[in-house]
C-alpha cells in the first residue's frame, strides 16, 4: 500500500491536448499516473482545477476531461488531483495553458438593399462581416469620412447588423465599419449609400410663338418633375402616341421640339420615370388655327369633293341608262342619213345600136335590229354613142332611188333595225 502511494506521487501529472489550444476549439485534459488501481488496491477519484478553482465538470473516476470549447478567458494554470477512498489526495504539478485567439481580418461592409441604393422612407441594413476571427468581436459602424460613430455592439460571431428603419435624404453618405477581438481593429472599405426619391407628377408646358399657332410653326414641349432623384427619363405623347423621349441626368426637365401641321391639333402629355415608378402629367390641348386662304381652299375643295361624291355616281348611272336606251331602241332616223356614195364602176361597151343593160351596184348600208340586214342598191344606166364620139356616162341620169333588201342574219349578234329615208 505504501509502495502504491509512492508510485502515485511520483507518476501523477497533467497533460493538455493540444498544448496551445485555439480559441473556439476543444481541449482534452488527462491526469496521468503510472500506478494502476490494482497496484493501489483502491479506486481513485480525479479532479481538475484552473487557478485554484475546480472545473464545473467536477470529479470522477475517469482521468480524462474533455472541454468542448475554450476561449481566451480559459487561459491559466491547470492541475489535477487523485483521491483515494481513504481520502488521501495527491496533486499533479501545475501547467500553464494559453488559449490562442485568431485576430479578425478581411472586414467588409455590405448593404441591404444591395448596391447601396435605397428608396426614401425604406429600411437600410448595414452588415459588417469578418472572414476570420475568434472570441468575442466588437463591431462598430461609422458615417462619413470623419467617422461619426453610429453604433457599437459585441458578440461572439463573425457578423453583425446595424439598421436604419426609415432613411431620409440626409442618410446619403459614405459608411464603414470595424471589427476587433482584442488583437486590434480591422477596418472595412467605404461604401456609398444613395437615398433615392420617386419622381413627383411632372408639369407639361407648351411654348408657342404667339397667341395663335399655325401650320409650320415650331412648338417646344417642356416636361419637368420638381421632385425625384436623377436620372429621370421623360417621354412625350400626342393622343397617347409617343413623339419622342429625352433623359435628364442632373434632374432638370427635358424639352422636345415639334414642327406643326394640321394633324398636330389635339391633346399632349408627358411621363417622368427614374426607375422608382412612372408619373404622368395632366393633358394639355393644342388648337392649330387654319389661315383664311387655306380655309377658303379647304371649303371649296370640300364642296367640290362633296358634290362629286354625291352627283358623280348619279350622273354616271343616268348616262348608262340613256346609252343603253340609245343603243337598244333608237329609231332609224337617229342614224346617219348620208351613207357612203358608191364608187362608179368602170363600164365596157360593144359595137351595138341597142343600149346596154343597166348594171346594179350593191352595198351593205347598216346592220339592223333582230336577225335582219338591210342593203342599199344603186341602179346606174349607161348607153353607147357613136364610135367617133367619146364615151360618156350619164351620171346625171343616175337613178338615185333606194332599193332595200332584207336579208336574214345568221349571226347571234344583236343588231338594230335601221331604215334610210334618203338614199342620197
Automatic annotation (TrEMBL):
Positions of the Ig-like domain: 23-90, 93-194, 202-289
Signal peptide coordinates: 1-16
Keywords of this entry: Cell membrane, Disulfide bond, Glycoprotein, Immunoglobulin domain, Membrane, Repeat, Signal, Transmembrane, Transmembrane helix
Protein name listed in UniProt: Fc receptor like 1
GO terms for cellular component: plasma membrane
Main location per the UniProt record: membrane
Protein's cellular compartments: Cell membrane
Residue intervals passing through the bilayer: 303-323
